[in-house]
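Narrative progress, year one. The postdoctoral researcher (J.K.) led the effort to move from monomer predictions toward full complexes, under supervision of the PI. The following entry was the first complex the group processed end to end, covering 328 residues in total.
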Amino acid sequence: MAQYAEITEIVAPSNASAGSSVSIQVKIKNKYSTTISIMVGGKLEYGVSPWPSISFPTYWANVAAGATYTFSGSFTMPDYPPGKEIIIHAYSCWYGTDAAWHLDDEKTKTVITVVPEPSEPSLSQFKIDDYLKV
Amino acid sequence: MTTKTVELSLGPVMAMAEPPKYQTGWYRDPVTGQQYYYDALKNQWYVYAAGYLYALGYMEPAPKKVTVAPGDKLQVILSFKYTGPAITGILTRYCVGVFGAFGFNERLSGTPTFNVPANLSATPVKVTNSYTFTIPTNVDTDWDDIYVKIWGGTPDIGGTEQSPARIFGYENALTVVGAVINITEFKIDDFKKV
């Protein structure tokens, strides 16, 4: 149960192909009575740790009382077998009067690895590469 | 079929600062009446004759000459860069023959099919295929041009045998030797009492 920085939602696709860039959003609500600084963090959980982090270009913000802030991030879908689950694990922190960040809430969302959709054939630079007596 | 008239006459040569950009479609030379088809996607012109389309400008000067004689084996290797799903059964036609004003006179040909593995990355990979000719005893010295074309497959790369998806050739690629009887310097070499 979150004290001040509640993760209300993780927005992410339900599946993605290996190597594709996946965009996510983590929505965090300020449950306190005044504006506080809130920070987001995240990791991908799959296979054996250590797990890679999720990139959030803007990873903290001053959030008004009762407001929800949406943090945008992304990661590259790992090269994992189709059908396997990748777990997005998001964390929230709030900044206290003790000048320290306090870990508060966490939430997970699953993304399943899928086989990428086949694209159209694309040919270029067609030529006779060589010709020789054999 | 919509026929359009080409603005530029293909008879007298005109100097242009920059060639015009044509859309895909049919064109007719106003001087000769010859019909042409242009594929803007492939940047390829075709001349229409007797129900067939023949690609123009697909032959290039050969980078080297390979000498062949009857009984020799000549391997021709095609290549292209590829991205996309796996393809099965691409049709090919490899030819040795004579290229002239009326197109390519095929004297030897081979028609293998081949498959291409999938490449779903953004970086094209090189794909190759080859065919080996056996030079016959009835080869003529002017069989010195080669070309290859591809079409079809599943999924389809497009084209037909007459209007292939890709075509490429080299002029004057071969030197044919040993094909005809060649006698020189015939003389009486010596005469003496024995």
